[in-house]
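Entry 14. Structure prediction run on the chain below.
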Amino acid sequence: MQGGAVYDIEETGDSSPRLVLSGPYLISTIGAIDQDLLEIDAALRSIDISQVQEIDTVGAWIICRMAREHNAEIEGASNRASRLIEAVSQSKSNEEILPPHVNLRERVPARVGERAYEMRDGTRSVVGFLGAVLIAAGSLIRNPRRFRVKALVRQMELVGVEALGIIGLMSFLIGIVIAQQGAVQLQQFGAETLTVNLVGRITLRELGVLMTAIMVAGRSGSAFAAQIGTMKLTEEIDAMRTIGISPLEALIIPRILAVTFMMVLLGFYAAVMAIIGGAFISEIALGIPFWNFLERIKDVVPIYDVWVGLIKAPVFGLIIGLTGCYQGMQVKGNSEDVGLRTTKAVVQAIFAVIVLDAFFAVFFTEIGWG
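Output returned:
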């Protein structure tokens, strides 16, 4: 192989041949014969490298590997080759590299401790963010001219108006599912007319506002985190502070107020669409006239069920807005953190909404609105 690394096996007087290497043994030339060297199964007496013209670390490592595998001596090494071979032979690169393994009894407590510290730091950060929002809100109350009405209207449009289609369709289909599945079970007891009660109470009291909150968390909460996180990553928020504009007043508070207000309307709208869906499928499957179904809703659904949904909605909206904006403000480092914080915003908001819904269920039952 002209211009490349070559080798030859020379027979000696005894049964162990000698491996003679010649040419440049460099990273750019060694690849052509590396596999051939690995396939040599004869017991070598020695490795002669006196004819090696040039050598680098890779070539020295190959020679050391051959000498170690065949228990052979290296002969004819130049000063440079000797230094490289000695350095390579003293390294631990030939040893098996294993990942660090920590005993289970040590690893579990250490991980629990890390989580505890993360929870402590996270709690401090959340409390600090809430405090900053309250201070900014108080400042706007004292100086109402600074309040950005156009920003609030724009966010209300994004959170509410543009979500009417998807929330309406989702609620309509949920109403169909509740009515259809409920009717199948109630028919076993000859009580299919109670489907009206089931659809009306469960949508106005629970599923209407809950499913809307989940949808808004996935749609608007994630948008808040991504938008604010990107602005922080591109230093737009720092630029706002530099020119004297408070990011909390300009970005955070309009978003929180928008999602809080719109959740009330969207929750009620979702409940109405679910009832319409239930009435639609009831006329087809149960023979209950559409308008009779809607008229019956007024008789079987107590007014406090409506109030329960209307009370839950702004609380859920506040949680979604705070979570999305908080996670957006925590973005730092790189664009990957934007995706991570967006995911956290959605997961934490939905989790908090479900926990609060369980709390509200117990609370309203205790005060007689069960």
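Residues 102-144 form one domain.
Filed with the rest of this week's runs.
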